[in-house]
């Protein structure tokens, strides 16, 4: 700091040279990384000053050397410490998630799917509302966007793959949502940015958002691929894990009820333990489902009796998760009947969903969203003004990257558009 102060004063009032001296980011990135000797050479002034002050202190008060020595050693090793702290962190080639963390993540995801289970209903034309406000009073925002619709479609896929919903149930959900989406007004294949979920009208001012269209297009392609994969594997792959997630959430909701449990509360705990024991056993899932259905019915009765004797705000949670468990077991049982009785019919429905999803995605024309002078995607196209917004997405690591990638892959914009996006990079380990 002293060196910087002296240099500044000399340059300002004496030499008037090097007043704008700095090291640019490009120079810093292009220069070779310093080794230990380089750090000692660069920090020689500060290290020498620290050692000189330590030596002076010992010279004036020799008995103080036990106090001075640690400070002298710190100054002496400062460049080595600077080198150590400047190294990039080691990046593991593969990040492993521990079993407890994986379980917690699954439960968080399961609670998230509860939003769609609760609010995507026929009264909203099976379209996801934008949000649900809890305070100061419960209000559902009966509007939706292309991103909302796309995320709901992905969530439905995940719910089936995680074992929380059956394949037949998910197909019915997707068919109902697509039926509503096909009724929505569009512009050059693009969905407008906001619709009322009750009347399916575009909300004013109507405009097309590049990022929202990109999100929905990408999500529709994922949905199409998922449906085609399900044709070869129509049964949900994680039935036991999905049912186990519901059991764990029932336990949590039950444990939050008042501590003075009655007989029915302990009966519920006993039934849940029995269910978990069956899920952890070696019996095939198909043979296990009738037993699970019987046990979940008993659990529902015990939970209902427990709730009726407990005045607690957490009882709706327990009621919901008991119902979710019962429904999950029933839907997985229905899947097995459907696949045995009419496998061709289910495959036909999945094929139709895949075709519809892909057609919706490919119908979006991204060419008119491109600013021809900047060769970048405009943020929005306003239907009222019949014009593009002058602002554009110009960063690769932006939320519109998916729209750019899809537009290039589809052939709506030239490949050079992808290379017009800025690429800020941060060195990390051996990569960036």
What's the main sheet like? 3 strands, antiparallel
Strand order across the biggest sheet?
Answer: 7-10-11
Shape summary: extended
Question: What helical percentage do the residues reach?
Answer: 55-70%
* Computed structural class: mainly alpha
Distance between the termini: 32 Å
SSE order in H/E notation?
HHHHHHEEEHHEEEEHHHHHHEEEEH
Radius of gyration (CA) equals 31 Å
Strand content: 5-15%
The averaged pLDDT comes out at 89
Using DSSP, what is the number of strands?
11
Which stretches of 5+ consecutive residues score pLDDT under 50? none
Number of helices: 15
Structure, explained:
- Strand 1 and strand 2 form a beta hairpin.
- The protein has a 3-stranded antiparallel sheet.
- It has 432 residues and is mainly alpha-helical.
- The chain has helices spanning 2-15, 25-30, 36-42, 44-60, 65-86, 99-119, 146-161, 167-181, 210-232, 239-255, 263-279, 285-308, 315-341, 343-362, 401-410, and strands at residues 132-133, 139-140, 143-144, 186-187, 190-191, 195-196, 207-209, 370-371, 376-377, 380-382, 387-388.
- The radius of gyration is 31 Å and the shape is extended.
- The mean pLDDT is 89.
- The protein starts with a helix and ends in a 22-residue tail after the last helix.
- It contains 15 helices and 11 strands.
- The relative contact order is 0.09.
């Amino acid at each position: 700091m002293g060196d910087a102060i002296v240099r500044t004063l000399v340059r300002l009032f004496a030499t008037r040279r090097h007043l704008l001296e700095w090291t640019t980011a490009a120079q810093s990135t292009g220069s070779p990384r310093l080794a230990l000797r380089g750090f000692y050479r660069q920090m020689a002034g500060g290290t020498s000053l620290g050692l000189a002050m330590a030596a002076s202190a010992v010279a004036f008060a020799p008995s103080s050397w036990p106090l001075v020595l640690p400070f002298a050693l710190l100054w002496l090793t400062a460049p080595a410490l600077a080198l150590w702290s400047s190294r990039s962190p080691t990046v593991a080639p593969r990040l492993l998630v521990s079993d407890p963390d994986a379980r917690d993540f699954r439960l968080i995801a399961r609670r998230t799917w509860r939003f769609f289970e609760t609010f995507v209903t026929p009264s909203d034309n099976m379209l996801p509302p934008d949000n649900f406000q809890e305070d100061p009073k419960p209000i559902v925002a009966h509007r939706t966007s292309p991103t909302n619709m796309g995320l709901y479609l992905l969530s439905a896929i995940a719910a089936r793959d995680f074992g929380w919903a059956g394949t037949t149930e998910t197909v019915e959900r997707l068919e109902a949502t697509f039926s509503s989406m096909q009724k929505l007004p569009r512009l050059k294949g693009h969905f407008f940015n906001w619709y009322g979920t009750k009347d399916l009208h575009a909300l004013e001012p109507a405009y097309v958002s590049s990022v929202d269209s990109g999100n929905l297009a990408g999500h529709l392609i994922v949905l199409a691929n998922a449906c085609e994969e399900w044709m070869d594997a129509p049964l949900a792959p994680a039935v036991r894990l999905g049912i186990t997630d519901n059991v764990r959430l029932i336990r949590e909701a039950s444990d939050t009820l008042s501590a003075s449990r009655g007989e029915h509360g302990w009966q519920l705990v006993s039934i849940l333990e029995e269910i978990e024991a069956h899920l952890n056993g070696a019996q095939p899932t198909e043979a296990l489902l009738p037993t699970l259905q019987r046990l979940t019915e008993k659990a529902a009765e015990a939970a209902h009796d427990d709730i009726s004797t407990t005045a607690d705000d957490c009882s709706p949670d327990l009621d919901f998760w008991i119902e979710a468990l019962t429904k999950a077991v029933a839907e997985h049982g229905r899947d097995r009947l459907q696949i045995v009785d009419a496998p061709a019919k289910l495959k036909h429905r999945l094929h139709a969903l895949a075709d519809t999803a892909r057609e919706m995605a490919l119908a979006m024309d991204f060419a008119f969203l491109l600013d021809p002078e900047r060769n970048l995607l405009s943020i929005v196209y306003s239907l009222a003004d019949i014009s593009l917004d002058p602002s554009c997405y110009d960063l690769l690591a932006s939320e519109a990257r998916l729209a750019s990638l899809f537009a290039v892959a589809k052939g709506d914009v030239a490949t050079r558009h992808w290379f017009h996006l800025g690429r800020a990079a941060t060195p990390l380990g051996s990569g960036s």
